[in-house]
Write a structure and sequence with these properties.
The protein has 2 domains: 150 residues, Deoxyuridine triphosphatase (dUTPase) (Deoxyuridine 5'-Triphosphate Nucleotidohydrolase, Chain A); 173 residues, Deoxyuridine triphosphatase (dUTPase) (Deoxyuridine 5'-Triphosphate Nucleotidohydrolase, Chain A, Distorted Sandwich), CATH 2.70.40.10. It contains 3 helices and 25 strands. A hairpin with a 2-residue loop joins β13 and β14. The radius of gyration is 20 Å and the shape is globular.
């Protein structure tokens, strides 16, 4: 039987049998949203628990003081917030976590730490159980989060199953994976190991945030004017000039499609391509840019770019990577069939908190 990412119908069974106090409303096509509890701490420094060590046992070592979630997360300050529920995985199942798109697009850095796991965003080995926590930091402006809000999503696996070159060629011929602006299938894709390169649509410009003291409440949808937090970024002679210390929302040139039997994730770029972070979220659900039958021909991906050096970027420049992986089976609900805020995304899309 195929191994890979578990779909919604299997995740539902895991919630019912293994996880307590997290209900079905937190299910996505191939992931589980991680709701925050009301237990939160302000930290003096970030950390990873040593192997086998409980996260809670680290609180005194990192200068943790209780934080009231009725107050915003200050810019540049790390916080630790417990995930609601009681978590246990089946013996053959392990997990990885990504920040949600809306959290990435407001440049919050949300990393998950799990009891006994000495790395971020991982629930390993298979059969993991314990407490889950989110290390949170607002990088661009203060963020207000609340109990029940999810800023991260958990994917579960029963084994790795990335698309190799032959599988990728078959998928490109059968469905197409990446498309051009004209919605024509791209066949000569630029590969990097187990992934494909994505480039910037610099002619579209984007949005720049230089930082502000205005507070954004992440429980409010379509509540804010974009101009209070972002400035339009326009190209000059087809290029964009980006500055270290600013935060950017930009679009890929390629339209990305994820067929129902696949899942996809953006991957970090090799530093030999430059000193930057190309995204703050990264997971792409099965059915993204698929519509009902594949006729949508993908959608561009909004990138959350953070620069560590001043830089000029041009059309066609490699800026991100996307890696595909098999689903264990197609989910009962595809992304394009869900009530997402980004199913109509074209160009550079601001987070759902902003008025259209």
């Amino acid at each position: 039987m195929t191994k890979g990412v578990l779909p919604k119908q299997m995740l539902r069974e895991i919630l019912q049998l293994y996880v307590k106090d997290v209900d079905e409303r937190y299910l996505n096509p191939a992931s589980i949203d991680l709701p925050l509890s009301d237990e939160a701490y302000r930290l003096e420094e970030v950390f990873l628990p040593p192997p086998g060590c409980m996260v809670r046992s680290m609180l005194s070592r990192v200068g943790a003081t209780q934080h009231d979630l009725g107050k915003p997360l200050e810019v540049g300050v790390p916080y630790l917030i417990k995930v609601a529920g009681h978590w246990e995985l089946p013996k053959i199942t392990y997990g990885y976590v990504n920040p949600k798109s809306s959290a990435g697009r407001v440049f919050g850095l949300f990393r998950t730490v799990a009891d006994g796991v000495a790395m971020y965003d991982a629930l390993t080995p298979a059969g993991w159980k314990g407490e889950l926590w989110v290390l949170a930091r607002a990088d661009a402006f203060p963020l207000l989060v609340s109990p029940g809000l999810a800023v991260s999503q958990l994917r579960l696996f029963d084994g790795p199953n990335f698309l190799g070159p032959l599988d990728s060629d078959f998928a490109i011929r059968r469905h197409g994976l990446l498309f051009g602006k004209d919605k024509k299938r791209l066949t000569d894709l630029r590969r990097h190991q187990d992934s494909f390169f994505l480039s910037l649509a610099t002619e579209l410009g984007g949005w720049e945030c230089r930082g502000t003291n205005k507070i954004l409440d992440m429980s409010k949808v379509a509540a804010y004017d974009s101009g209070d937090f972002f400035e339009p970024l326009k190209p000059v002679n087809g290029t964009l000039k980006l500055r270290k210390g600013s935060f950017y929302l930009l679009s890929t040139h390629e339209r990305v499609m994820v067929p129902p039997t696949l899942s996809a994730e953006l991957r970090a770029m090799d530093p030999r391509f430059g000193e930057f972070r190309s995204h703050s979220a990264g997971y792409i659900d099965p059915g993204w840019g698929w519509g009902t039958d594949g006729s949508v021909c993908g959608r561009p991906i909004t990138l959350e770019l953070t620069l560590f050096e001043d830089r000029e970027v041009r059309v066609g420049e490699n800026i991100a990577r996307v890696r595909y992986e098999w689903m264990k089976e197609a989910p009962e609900l595809l992304y394009d069939q869900s009530a997402s805020n980004y199913t109509e995304q074209e160009g550079v899309a601001l987070a759902k908190f902003f008025k259209k």
